[in-house]
Amino acid sequence: MTGPEQTLKALALVCSLKPSPASSSSELIAEHVFATLRDQGVDCESIRAVDFAIAPGVEDDMGDGDQWPGIRTKVLDADILLISTPVWLGHHSSVTQRVLERLDAELSNTDDADRPVLVGKVAIVSVVGNEDGAHKVIADLFQALNDVGYSIPAQGSTYWNGEAMQSTDYKDLDAVPEAVASATSAAARNAVHLARRLKAAQYPEYS
């Protein structure tokens, strides 16, 4: 396809603290977002960040042993980025914070029009947890992702919070609540709409 309806690519960075192959609620809700994205003709790929050696820092390559550069290539190639994180102690996971810090390097990586390379790309967020904090986590992630250049679509998040101080996880549910399923679908559909519009008409030159 050509024009605004050309095929888009989406990348999910799943920021669970659990390495593969352990089951992950963060990965499951990301897959639920992907279901709608795929229905919209989007190519989807998921990476569980904790499976890689992502060095601390704010450079695009932190040197020997750092596996972020390979992930970064996929980030730059994606039209839509999904950050999927659990809530721990009221905040996004430490893995999520590491990913955000590495994305900060892209502020100095610009295109021919002097725009940061992530300007014109879309980001959405999914959050799971059996404690309060989803709204705060979403707000923090939206601000960070927008800071580095991503555009956030209308209602660009979905979340599930279980009852506080209980042990049920998103992956343990017999069925996804209708309100969550609706939010998941809306976030994905709106991300595709915005990404296609930005493909057709990029932001003005910065220079």
TrEMBL record:
It holds the Pfam family FMN_red. InterPro entries: Flavoprotein-like_sf, FMN_Rdtase-like_dom. GO terms for molecular function: oxidoreductase activity. SUPFAM superfamilies: Flavoproteins (SSF52218). Residues 9-149 form the NADPH-dependent FMN reductase-like domain. Gene3D superfamilies: 3.40.50.360. This is Flavodoxin. It comes from Mycolicibacterium rhodesiae (Mycobacterium rhodesiae). The lineage of its organism: Bacteria, Bacillati, Actinomycetota, Actinomycetes, Mycobacteriales.
